[in-house]
Amino acid sequence: MIKKEMIAMLLAGGQGSRLGVLTSKVAKPAVAFGGKYRIIDFPLSNCINSGVDTVGVLTQYQPLRLNSHIGIGIPWDLDRNIGGVSVLPPYEKSVNSEWYTGTANAIYQNLEYMESFNPEYILILSGDHIYKMDYEEMLNFHKEKGAECTIAVMPVPIEEASRFGIMIADEERRITEFEEKPAQPRSNLASMGIYIFNWKTLKEALIAMAQQPALDFGKHVIPYCHEKGAPLYAYEFTGYWKDVGTLHSYWEANMELIDIVPEFNLYEEYWKIYTKSDILPPQYFSAESRVERCIIGEGTDIHGEVYNSVIGCGVTIGKGTVVRDSIIMNGTVTGENCELYKAIVAENAEIQNYVKLGIGDETQNDTAPHIYNHGLVTVGEKSVVPEGVTVGKNTVISGVTDRSDYPDAYLASGKTLIKAGEQ
Q1: E-state strands within 199-266
Q2: Segments in 29-74 forming alpha helices (H)
Q3: Residues 220, 108 contacting (CB under 8 angstroms)
Q4: How far is CA 149 from CA 145, 346, 372, in A?
């Protein structure tokens, strides 16, 4: 029988609704990041760099792009005869079929997959964080402590602690209490949503709690283990870790990559980030182009000026166009004589000539101020912004729009323009 010491289960089914139109057609872990990567590349690369060669990727929401990106796992060296990467969507069963309703329910529905590797330990990961972490070090800590469950934690500013699951641990790092999003936090050790369980412990907890609606690790599985007296430990992580769950944190994490000395370095030889790359020609910069402090993907043609921006692969930036502090994803075409300030433009969009994005004063967004804020302009995938229009800040455009959608060729700050049939 196959025996793997530790296998990873990577939760990648989330919609990521706080990313607005960026995730209307694609699961959050498949959103482009840093020019040529997708968010899921980071946990997958961490797995192979940590010697974990068996990964189950649990998908649900809009999985098409994620599935084709992962394929059989070749870029991450996860195309193995035994183990490797497996995409695990919900499936029809003979008795009752159900979607994954919570993080732990998704794992519970795949008990058979995990059982087939007869593992000693199960590593649970989330598919939507940007970080580098050696899971082998965490496993060594887990073994040394004789833990049944180890939770990766990270110190956060105490004023932000109420947004997280908070662990209270003794000096041995054994968890004595934990609170899910406490109003008055008593510790600043936040759960990162990364767990190592002994397989027996996890299996027992999942089966015992299976009937809970929306079965969740933080709300059900960990409290169950704690009540049973299982030794739970907190493993403190001190490296770079970013939850890119909001448009602003996503924009910020991309911008941090282009600092002169980036806090998060994509270029370390010993800890490579792998991705599926298309075969593309090199970047082309025309004689009149200017580029400063940018990441520019392969196959991109630049005829204008680009400053402090992250540009994906196969992008065209027209003559006379100026792009600042923006993220432009793969396959987007920007026409001539445009101005883009603090724009996030999703894949395969078309920005026609003489368009200005991010102009004017900030006004709160009229439909979703909790999503579209911090002065950003967000343009959804395959959207078209017609020639000669000006768009304000905290705005969102999705769909094929034309001049009639812009009174006086203008979309004021805080306005939402989402065409019927788009989300």
Answers
A1: 232-236, 241-243
A2: 41-49, 64-70
A3: no
A4: 10, 39, 38
Structural tokens at position 292: 């400063």
Distance, first Cα to last Cα, the chain: 47
CA distance 210 to 221: 10
Read off the pTM.
0.88
Q: What is the pLDDT of residues 351-394, one digit of tens each?
A: 999 999 999 999 999 999 999 999 999 999 999 999 999 999 99
Tokens of 356: 């200005």
CB atoms within 10 A of CB 229: 8
Task: Provide the 3-class DSSP secondary structure of residue 145.
Answer: helix
Token code pair at residue 122:
């199960």
Which has the closest alpha carbon to 108: 43, 197, 177, 46?
Answer: 197
The Cα–Cα gap between 311 and 103 comes to 33
**DSSP strand pairing (165-169 vs 175-180):** antiparallel
Cα 276 to Cα 338: distance, rounded to the nearest angstrom: 31
How do residues 160-184 score in pLDDT, each as one tens digit? 888 788 888 898 999 988 887 888 8
Tokens representing residue 31 in the block: 């959103």
Q: Which of 58, 375, 332, 103 is CA-nearest to residue 214?
A: 103
75 DSSP assignment: G
Tens of pLDDT, residues 92-134: 453 454 556 677 888 888 888 899 888 999 999 988 789 999 9
CB 247 within 8 A of CB 18: yes
Contacts of residue 55, defined as CB under 8 A and 6 or more positions apart, other chains included, come to 7, 8, 9, 10, 44, 47, 73, 78, 84, 85, 86
Cα gap 297→312, rounded to integer Å:
5
CB 11 within 8 A of CB 103: yes
